[in-house]
Specification:
By secondary structure, the protein is an alpha+beta fold. It folds into two domains: 8-233, Rossmann fold (3-Layer(aba) Sandwich), CATH 3.40.50.300; 240-370, OB fold (Dihydrolipoamide Acetyltransferase, E2P), CATH 2.40.50.140. 23% of the residues lie in helices and 34% in strands. It contains eight helices and 20 strands. The strands form four sheets. A six-stranded mixed beta sheet has the order 6-7-8-3-9-10, sandwiched between helices. The longest helix is centred in the middle third of the chain and has 18 residues, at 170-187.
Length: 372
Amino acid sequence: MSNTTPIISIDGVTKRFGPVVAVDRVSLEIQPNEFFALLGPSGCGKTTLLRMLAGFETPDEGAFLIDGQDVTDIAPNRRPVNMVFQSYAVFPHMTVFENVAYGLKVVRTAASEIQTRVREALDMTQLGGLAERRPDQLSGGQRQRVALARALIKRPKVLLLDEPLSALDAKLREAMRLELVNLQHDVGITFIIVTHDQNEALTMADRIAVMEDGAIRQVAAPAELYEFPNCRFVADFIGKMNLFEGRIVGEGGGQSGRRVQVEVSGVGRLDLPVPQGEAVPAGDAAGGLGIAVRPEKVRIHAEAAEGRISLHGRVSQVAYYGDTSHVFVALDSGGTLSAIFQNEARSAEPAVQIGQELWCSWDPRDTLILGN
C-alpha cells in the first residue's frame, strides 16, 4: 500500500458485552480507496468492530479516526460513512427511485439535485432502467444494488458492507463479487466488508484482516495470507490445508542453507529447508508446531518422486467437484493426506479409485512450519 494518510485508524479498541470481550484491543489502519475485508468465523468480533466504526456501538476503550477526525463519540448520522446491511433493508412500498432518494429527502436536498444524483447512482449500479419498479419486482442481486445505490448517493468517504452477499444464491454471489470490485474501482472510495466466506475475501479484497476471539491474527494481501499464514489458525481457516502436529528434533545447515528436522505425527521425520530470513516458530510449552501443506501442492504418483517429500498410502475417499477432485489418502505411517487436482481429461471415470495404492509428494519448500 502507499504511504498516504490512512482513511481509517483504529487505535486499541475494546468492546465488552458483560463478561464477554467481543473486540480485544484492536488496532488497524485502512488506506484511502482500499477494498478491505474483516474475515473470521461467527462470533470473532468482526461485525461488532464494523458497527463501532459506523457508530451503532460504543467502544469501552480506544478510538476511531476517519480521515484524521476522531469520531469515537460522534453520532452515526454525522460520520462520513454509510452502511449496507445483510438484509438490504429496502423499503417495499417505495420504487427504486424513491428508495435511493430517501436519504437525500431526509436532509432536505433540493429536488433538482435529488433527480441528478439519483440518476447518477442508478446508472453507476446498473439500475437505470428499473427506477419505477418496486422491490418485489426485483431479483436478489437487483435489490442489493438498490441498497448500494442508496448508500453511495450520500457520497460517504467509507462504505461499510455487513455480509452483503450472504442472502444470494451461489452463482449470483460469485457474479456480485466482481460487480462490487468494479463498483469500488469506479466510485474510488474505501470499501470495508465483513464476511465469514474466505473465497469472498480472497477474490474481492486488497487486504484482509483475519480475526479470532475478538483479536486480529494477521493482516495481509490475499496471496500473502494464503501462501504465508503466520499461525495455525490462519492457515487452517484460509482455504483447505493438511495440518499435522510436529516438533523440531534437529537443525543444520550447508550450501543449500538452513534446514530443520521435524518429527511429524502420522507422517514421520521430514527434513525441511528454512527460507532465508524466515524465523522458525518456537512452538508451545510442549514443543509442538503445526506442520502444513496445501492440498493443491500435493501430487499423486505411481512411484516415489525424486527430490520431493514422498509418502505411500491408500486412497480412502474421493470428493468430486466437477472441475477438481479432492483425494484423501490413508498413509502407511498412520496419518491422512489430501490432494486436490484438476480433472483435465473429459471422462466419466474417476482418475483414482478408492482402495488404490499410490504415492503422494510435494516440494519441501511448500511445507509451512507454524506456531500457535
